């Protein structure tokens, strides 16, 4: 017995897994000096299966990675491990080697060719190989954005985000500077300079990736499409529409976007979104989130989208979303405008909207009274609209910033429904008329009892949207968890 050596094959399976998990977890520590998990996959077949299930789970793909990605995912087993692909479309720097795929001469052609190559790769994957589906995330990056204007956009978080994808941790963002539309860098460095402002608008707050003469093949393994606010450039609406139509099993669209700097560009982008929604989102889509932000400088204030475009968009969003189960539209349209156009949403279980009425920006008493009356009218309108949503479990309307915050919530659970009002303001918003309207809605949802709670929030602590998110029931749908920690 003394001469026997430890044998991996003789160990119980539970102990093997414990050892492998301990080894993998050692790489999650922020002070780990280990070089990576991939080398462990060469130890044995058992180790290969275990560690490839981790290393193939998430991919961050630049243009140069697309060919190796195709080569390394030929195995159905490896394809089944993939859960998240982040496609980073970056401009090529001078002197970089050829991508090895057919491309045109401009960055946009590079981007289109890269997308086509990835789509062609994924089109060969079968549902059986990736039954759970995967998330496809996209972002575009220009050299001007990466270098000259780097301090005027959210910090490129490729390292931190890769760590999050690997471990789920957010600790690495604790000491990263937050970015929002009131960030000091805009006030001190861009706003006073018209040339810098124009340059930043062109390089950062615009759209690109227009697929000219390119048709994407259908890809069945993608079930979620994601863009995050860490990237300020918008995908061209025609391209976005083609992406959505090319994913027949797409169940969720999560789109965080920044307002475009030029009025014409923003108007065309909104018209493109309008066209996409007007003909109806694919029936496979059950969840849609649009989170809209804009930089607060005079340049944006002078270039507001025309009213006609927004009116058309509201109607199209309502029509296109009739079959959805979850819908969140934050800061792209007003809650009262959406609810005024609401039809019967037979499948909707959660709805999140925003309203400018929830922030008091006037010191005038008459205007304050008028805003109060409009806010109550909004809550009555919401109750009426919610009664046409038979499966509704949650509706939230909210806003925050400049030291103020207000959140209205109606949720259905158990044997009762509940109305919740949280606000930094003193006004009596949820009065007897509002409560009676929501009692009627609760009865439509099969609940004879309606509870009401009102919470006064402390004034001054709400600089931006991010500080309001912890008070939302729908916070995980409204914004990606990484995006939430990147804003105040």
TrEMBL record:
Q: Which residues form the DUF6546 domain?
A: 281-480
In terms of InterPro entries, this protein maps to: DUF6546
Designated name of the protein: DUF6546 domain-containing protein
Organism of origin: Colletotrichum orchidophilum
Q: What is the lineage of its organism?
A: Eukaryota, Fungi, Dikarya, Ascomycota, Pezizomycotina
């Amino acid at each position: 017995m003394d001469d026997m050596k430890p044998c991996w094959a003789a160990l119980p399976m539970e102990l093997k897994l414990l050892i492998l998990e301990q080894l993998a977890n050692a790489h999650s520590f922020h002070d780990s000096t280990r070089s990576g998990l991939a080398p462990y996959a060469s130890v044995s077949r058992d180790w290969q299966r275990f560690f490839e299930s981790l290393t193939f789970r998430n991919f961050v793909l630049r243009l140069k990675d697309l060919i190796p990605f195709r080569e390394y995912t030929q195995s159905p087993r490896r394809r089944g491990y993939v859960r998240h692909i982040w496609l980073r479309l970056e401009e090529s720097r001078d002197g970089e080697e050829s991508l090895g795929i057919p491309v045109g001469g401009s960055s946009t052609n590079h981007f289109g060719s890269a997308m086509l190559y990835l789509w062609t790769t994924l089109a060969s994957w079968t549902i059986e190989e990736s039954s759970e589906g995967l998330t496809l995330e996209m972002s575009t990056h220009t050299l001007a954005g990466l270098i000259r204007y780097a301090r005027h956009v959210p910090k490129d978080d490729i390292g931190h985000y890769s760590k999050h994808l690997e471990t789920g941790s957010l600790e690495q963002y604790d000491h990263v500077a937050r970015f929002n539309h009131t960030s000091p860098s805009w006030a001190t460095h861009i706003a006073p300079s018209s040339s810098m402002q124009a340059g930043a608008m062109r390089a950062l707050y615009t759209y690109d990736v227009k697929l000219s003469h390119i048709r994407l093949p259908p890809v069945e393994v993608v079930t979620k499409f994601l863009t995050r606010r860490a990237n300020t450039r918008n995908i061209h609406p025609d391209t976005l529409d083609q992406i959505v139509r090319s994913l027949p099993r797409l169940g969720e669209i999560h789109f965080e976007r920044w307002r475009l700097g030029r009025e014409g560009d923003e108007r065309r982008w909104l018209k493109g979104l309008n066209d996409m929604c007007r003909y109806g989102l694919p029936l496979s889509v059950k969840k849609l989130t649009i989170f809209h932000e804009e930089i607060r400088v005079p340049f944006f204030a002078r270039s507001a989208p025309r009213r006609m475009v927004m009116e058309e968009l509201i109607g199209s969003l309502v029509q296109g979303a009739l079959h959805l189960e979850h819908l969140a539209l934050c800061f792209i349209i007003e809650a009262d405008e959406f609810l005024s156009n609401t039809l019967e949403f037979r499948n909707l279980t959660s709805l999140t909207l925003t309203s400018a009425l929830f922030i008091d920006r006037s010191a005038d008493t008459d205007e304050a009274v008028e805003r109060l009356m409009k806010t109550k009218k909004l809550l009555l309108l919401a109750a009426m609209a919610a009664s046409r949503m038979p499966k509704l479990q949650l509706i939230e309307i909210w806003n925050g910033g400049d030291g103020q915050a207000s959140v209205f919530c109606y949720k259905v659970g158990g044997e009762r429904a509940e109305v919740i009002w949280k606000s930094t303001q003193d006004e009596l918003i949820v009065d007897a008329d509002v409560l009676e309207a929501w009692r009627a809605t609760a009865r439509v949802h099969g609940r004879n009892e309606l509870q009401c709670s009102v919470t006064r929030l402390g004034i001054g602590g709400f600089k931006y949207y991010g500080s309001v998110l912890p008070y939302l029931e729908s916070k995980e749908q409204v914004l990606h968890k990484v995006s939430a920690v990147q804003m105040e």
